[in-house]
């Protein structure tokens, strides 16, 4: 019998969309626009194939929004959230992006462990303004009191395709 915390991380597919959306809705996180970036999403599934965590990227030129990071309530603390975020960060590295941005209501400490720092969304690169979540921020949190913007600056890529030290 598999370990109760056992899971496998893999790229998400269109077939996973309803399960990811259900997780997001249960956590009161936005689902709008998720279908448009499913090819840059990752899921953690338990031994029975049930999706227990997800994370996605919305690329915008040389930067991306990390979105839809969610772990099923009863599977928090198992490392599944870390695993899907690391899968997304690996893809960011493969894509050679310069920065990764996110919005958080309750998980700033979680994202800080990956090197994210607080940065108000109004100080994000212009390319990020194309994000639906960015465009809705002033409606969701008009006084910028509840939702925290965070950023992870990534080292530039050198001519050999390797990330150069900053």
Task: Summarize the entry for a quick read.
Helices cover 24% and strands 27% of the residues.
Give descriptors for this structure:
166 residues, alpha+beta, Aminopeptidase, 7-stranded mixed β-sheet, 4 helices
Structural overview:
With 166 residues, this protein is an alpha+beta fold. It has one domain (7-153): Gcn5-related N-acetyltransferase (GNAT) (Aminopeptidase), CATH 3.40.630. It has 4 helices and 7 strands. The protein has a 7-stranded mixed beta sheet, with helices on both faces. The radius of gyration is 16 Å and the shape is globular. The N and C termini lie far apart (46 Å). The mean pLDDT is 88.
Task: Give the topology.
Blueprint: E1 7-11, H1 17-26, E2 41-46, E3 51-60, E4 63-71, H2 80-95, E5 99-104, H3 108-112, E6 117-118, H4 132-140, E7 148-153
CATH architecture: 3-Layer(aba) Sandwich
By DSSP, the count of extended strands is 7
The number of domains? 1
Mean pLDDT: 88
């Amino acid at each position: 019998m598999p370990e109760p915390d056992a899971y496998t991380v893999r790229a998400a597919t269109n077939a996973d969309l309803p399960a990811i959306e259900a997780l997001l809705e249960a956590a009161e996180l936005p689902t709008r626009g998720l279908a448009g970036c499913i090819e840059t999403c990752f899921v953690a599934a338990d031994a029975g194939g049930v999706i227990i965590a997800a994370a996605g990227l919305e690329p915008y030129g040389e930067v991306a929004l990390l979105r839809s990071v969610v772990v099923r309530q009863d599977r928090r603390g198992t490392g599944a959230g870390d695993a899907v975020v690391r899968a997304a960060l690996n893809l960011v590295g493969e894509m050679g992006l310069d920065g990764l941005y996110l919005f958080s209501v309750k998980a700033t400490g979680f994202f800080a462990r990956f090197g994210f720092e607080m940065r108000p969304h109004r100080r994000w690169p212009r390319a990020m303004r194309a994000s639906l979540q960015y465009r809705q921020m002033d409606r969701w949190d008009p006084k910028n009191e509840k939702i925290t913007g965070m950023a992870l600056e990534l080292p530039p890529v050198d001519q050999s395709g390797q990330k150069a030290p900053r």
